[in-house]
Amino acid sequence: MTAQAPTAPADVYAEVQHFYARQMRHLDMAEADAWADTFTEDGSFAPPSRPEPVRGRPALTAGARQAAADLAARGETQRHWVGMLTVTPAADGSLTAESQVTIIAVPQGGPARLHLVCTCRDVLVREAGELLVRERVVTRDDRP
């Protein structure tokens, strides 16, 4: 039997859930600056669609703005649903949050459809008492 990784206390787990609810709402509402502000100043985001991670708030903001513009041009909205969340504390005070994310595409005038299912692994840190993403790695479930 393998040892189970330590889990975060219930209050920290709930705080992480609230963090994702706010963060994903910013993304889904095309609030690029607010979304990028949920990352550390030098935070990184490694989506499967890019060969290299996006690094730093200015680049994160630009990427979120471009994604929102692309969706608007297609007449589509996306909704991100974070589930199956685990939160593991590290000795340095950071948290590793792993989740499954479902992205639902909602075209104007059309039915919603499943767009993508992926796995998200974040390293969360506290700055001035607030949780922020220092590093995010997203992998798609439909790719090796």
Automatic annotation (TrEMBL):
InterPro entries: NTF2-like_dom_sf (IPR032710), SnoaL-like (IPR037401). Residues 12-136 form the SnoaL-like domain. SUPFAM superfamilies: NTF2-like. This is Nuclear transport factor 2 family protein.
